[in-house]
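Our consortium's second objective concerns turning raw sequence data into structural hypotheses that experimental partners can test. To show how far this objective has progressed, the report includes one record in full. It was chosen at random from the queue rather than selected for favorable results. The single chain below, 157 residues long, was entered without modification.
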Amino acid sequence: MNVVPDQPPFGIASETLRRLLAARAADPCTLRADAVLRAFRSFAATRFESPHPPVSDAVGYRFVRKARRGRELAVIVLARRFGLRKPRGGEVEVRCELIYPAWSELAGLPDHEEWWYRGGGEPLELDEWLDRLTTRMEWAVLRWRQPASVDVDLVEL
């Protein structure tokens, strides 16, 4: 497995995810959640140079319901967080957000967030952890539906 040096900038990581999504479809909004997750799985397996393992390379999942411009939305966030080499430390996160209209089937589901840390003594391997995410109730509703938008952002925390 190749290690891609990327400090600074982490733009290489976000561009890698964009290209993996583009390889599946010219417009990421035409991809269903399963296809996005397959691209994200490749991204999560790509090694990038990051300081202070294991806490400096983490893969995250969030499911949230929120309102934007008066519309109820359901959002799945697939994220990869890296530590920064600065005197004060810090982190940067590559986020892939799948934004959907909030269907009635999602009404009773709570928000959820969990993280997997590379080399952190996790009980599951990365592939197993990602597979387990798809057993969550929101995936039963959203897995075969196309999102209203798929956004990839690089955010310094």
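The partners drew two points from this record. The radius of gyration is 16 Å. The helical segments are 11-24, 33-45, 126-133, 137-142. Both points have been shared with the crystallography group to help prioritize constructs.
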